[in-house]
TrEMBL record:
One Pfam family it belongs to: DUF8015
Sorted UniProt keywords: Membrane, Transmembrane, Transmembrane helix
Lineage: superkingdom: Archaea
Membrane-spanning ranges: 26-45, 51-70
InterPro entries hit by this protein: DUF8015
Name of the protein: Uncharacterized protein
Protein species of origin: Halobaculum lipolyticum
Region of interest (Disordered), residue spans: 1-20
Length: 80
């Protein structure tokens, strides 16, 4: 039984920073995490579930508003 060495010709260079998540990846990850935390927090804490889910939803909405309006992905483009 022989073992072949992997060929180095089939490799593609990895651009710098390709493995690290961007700010917008973190925004997209934070939204369901906050919704889930609100729903679970309502069942585990002494808060009513609708109140805790509402707090989680409000925090998720703030994160979305930050990602869209405070620091938009496309930079600052002015409408002409």
């Amino acid at each position: 039984m022989s073992v072949r060495e992997p060929s180095s010709r089939n490799t593609t260079p990895v651009p710098p920073g390709a493995g690290s998540p961007s700010k917008y990846d973190l925004v997209l990850a934070a939204v369901p995490a906050l919704l889930f935390a609100g729903a679970v927090g309502g069942t585990r804490l002494s808060l009513p579930t609708p109140t805790a889910a509402g707090v989680g939803s409000a925090l998720a909405a703030l994160v979305v508003a930050y990602g869209l309006f405070v620091s938009p992905p496309g930079g600052s483009r002015r409408a002409r």
